[in-house]
Amino acid sequence: MATPDIRGDKSVAVASWEPIVGAIGPKVREVRQLLGLSLQQLAARSEVSAAAIHKVERGDMVPTITTLLKLSAALGRPIGFFVDDADWAGPVGVHVRAAERPPAPIDWAPEAAGVQATAIAVPNERLRAGGVWAEIEPGGTSGEGRSVRSGEELVLVTKGVLAVDIAGERYRLEAGDSLHFPADRPHSWQNPGPDTATAVWWLLRG
Q1: If you write DSSP's letter for every residue of 120-184 in order, what string do you get?
Q2: Helix, strand, or coil here: 22?
Q3: Which pTM value belongs to this model?
């Protein structure tokens, strides 16, 4: 009996994987930019060199499983996010466990001092909103500079006091108070109280 020619099947299999492999780099770049991370900052988080990340993003290098695991952890995404076929629906919701929260987006409050912050929601290709949980020590602040970005922000104070300045308008938020504002207006905040304040930010990119 003649041996069946399976070369056609192999080519089909390879062709079916090429779009998935080719999408890894753009997905890495997309999430990195959504988080406001530079190549150097992602390199520091992931322990993968900036040069290697640049090659992955450009499609000049296919990452090893170890490299992809490091990048996935640093970007707060499951590894399946980077290798899933676009036709795969995946979970409807994104469950972020308290002990597994990724760092807050780097552009949320890049000059913050006296603040511990983690991401409670990270935007992706399906979900646009992001979220930050922050614990702000007495005197803790977003920094001397004023943040400006496209989109909207909603902050809810859950404990303590937060003083917020938006384009010269000053607000004092106490536990239970919220403030919704356009993020393209210069804004800053600080904890003027004697106790640690906690707050949740909802971020919608423009």
Answers
A1: EE---SS--EEEEEEEEEEEEES-SS-B--SSEEEEEEEESEEEEEETTEEEEEETT-EEEEETT
A2: helix
A3: 0.60
The whole-number pLDDT of residue 197 equals 98
Extract the residue ranges of the chain whose pLDDT is less than 70: 1-17, 85-91, 125, 206
Domains of the chain: 9-83 (1.10.260.40), 102-204 (2.60.120.10)
Cα–Cα dist 193/154, whole Å: 21
pLDDT for the residue numbered 85: 56
**DSSP one-letter string for 90-106:** --SS----GGGPPBPPT
∠ at Cα 74 (191, 147), nearest 5°? 35
Distances (CA, A) of 186 to 24, 143, 154: 35, 12, 15
Q: Which two tokens stand for residue 40?
A: 């150097």
* pLDDT at res. 171: 98
Tokens representing residue 26 in the block = 């753009």
Helix, strand, or coil (residue 167): coil
